[in-house]
Structure formats: structure tokens, C-alpha cells
Amino acid sequence: MKTIALFGGSFDPPHLGHYSIVHALLEIKEIDEIIVMPTYLNPFKDASFAPAELRLRWLKEIFKEERKVTVSDFEIQEEKKVPTITTVENLSKNCDKIYLIIGADNLKGLHSWYRYSELEKLVTFMVAHRESISIPPYYADLQVEVNISSSEIRKNIQEEMLCRVNAKEIVQYYKKQLRTTMRERIKKITNVLDTNKAEDIEVFDLHEKNYFVEYAIIASSLGSRHTLALLDHLKKGIKPEETFNNVDESGDWVVIDLGDLLIHIMTAEYRAKYDMETFLSELGQSTGEEW
């Protein structure tokens, strides 16, 4: 009787949380094989940050020394979103029991999974702890706590969150991706401002400086009413992709905090009075680009 554990996900990127789950599974004697299954594209997402073949290679490098671990390309070879039950049905041809590994954060939406009623008959769900979410007694408990996520790592990529074997490569890749994404975000913001007649739009690169955001944008309005109108245009033009963490607004000066990016919209008089360009130039530098 062969028992396998299926651990699927985007692994975008693979991190120490994933590694700890696999090593917890290795301690379970009942499990004969652990199948790590990177998705081509997560069924609940529209895109991935790293391409499938790259995520597959990273996983193979991480687990190449583990005899009981197989990194499978089954879903990647399909080159489309693959429902979990399709993968389970394929694997069930060669095994007697399947543990399906999920995070506790998946429990809430589990019943919405494609063909869930059939899936639950084919697998035993095994749950990794996360964020103090209680695990019902009818699920197998993996007894491992994983409180890091790939999405949070992508925002603040650090080597210590990753497996040593390929941490440097993964960090370099995502930092490059983040820079590309940031350029696209800035381009969209400045396009909204320019289309709605903001003047003297300037972007400051602060990402290597000791400042609380990576970039700052300054734009001049044509007057107090125009300042507030530009704020409204941004709310309509860049939401919901951007999260407005905080907005300080007046007719003379609006400051929008997007977390890693700050937008200043100022009347010409306030811009000259407070000379934000000099302050920001001392921290970083203007990109000097035409936005």
C-alpha cells in the first residue's frame, strides 16, 4: 500500500515555509513519497511573477538531496490552470492513499474548490498551522507552523527567508521583477496626472536610501480645486490595483501614501514655498525621465 503526500502551490517564490512543511512530512513514516507540485498558474490567480519552468527548477534544486521527495512537472506540462482534483485523479492511479497538504488559511474557502465533494472522497486533507487558525479535528494535523507567505516575501525579498541553495538567484530575480513592476505603476500614475493637466511631474528614486518609501512623485496643480480633482482622478484611475494607505488632503497640498510610493500634488505656490525637490534630492535623485 503506497501513501503519498501531495503538496501543491505556486511556490512564487519557494521559501523556508515550504521547506519546513516538506521536512515535517518527511518525519511521518506512513508517507512513502512526497510530491511537490508547482502550478502552471494558480486556479485562483490570473498571473504568476516567476515563470513556471523557473519555479520548477528552483524546487528541484532545493529538494534534490531528498530521496522521498519528487518535484513533479505534471501541472506545468499542461500549460494552463489545473484543478487539484485533476492532479489527484492522475496520482491515484499509482497509489492507495493521498494526503493533500493545505495551509490553515485555505480552510475557509476549501468548499469552493472545483468538484470539492469528489475531491474530499479521494484525499485526506492534512493542514499546516497558520496565523493561529484552529484546525477542525476531522482534518489531519501536520504540526508545523508557517506564518510567512510568498506574497509578503515578494514585497520585501530577503535571503534569510529562502533556502540557501538558490537564495541569491531568487532574490536577484524578484528584485528585478519588482523594479519592472514599479516602473509600470509609476507610468500609470504619471499618465493619470498628465492626462488631467498636472504640471512639472517629477519622480524621485529613493529605493537605496534610508527613507520609508522607495519612490516619490511630485506634481503641480493649477489651483486648489484642481489639486483635489487630481486626487479624485487618481482614485478612479489606479484603484483597486493600488492601496491608498493614507491620504492627507487640502486644496494646496495632497499627500497620498501607497506604502512604497508617495505622491505629492501641490499648487505651484506651495511647491515653491516648501521646495520638496531639494529635500528629496538630498535623499535620492530625480529619475530625470519624461513621464
Explain how this protein is built.
- Strand 2, helix 2 and strand 3 form a beta-alpha-beta unit.
- The strands form two sheets. This protein has a six-stranded parallel sheet, sandwiched between helices. It has a six-stranded mixed sheet with strand order 9-10-11-8-7-12.
- It has ten helices and twelve strands.
- The chain folds into two domains: 146 residues, HUPs (Rossmann fold, 3-Layer(aba) Sandwich), CATH 3.40.50; 102 residues, Beta Polymerase, domain 2 (2-Layer Sandwich), CATH 3.30.460.
- Helix 4 packs parallel to helix 5 and helix 7 packs across helix 8.
- The chain is α/β, with parallel strands linked by helices.
How many H/I helices?
10
Q: What structural class do helix, strand and pairing data support?
A: alpha/beta
| Helicity, as a percent range | 25-40%
Task: Kindly report the CATH topology of the largest domain.
Answer: Rossmann fold
- Sum up the overall morphology in one term: elongated
| Gap from first CA to last CA | 64 Å
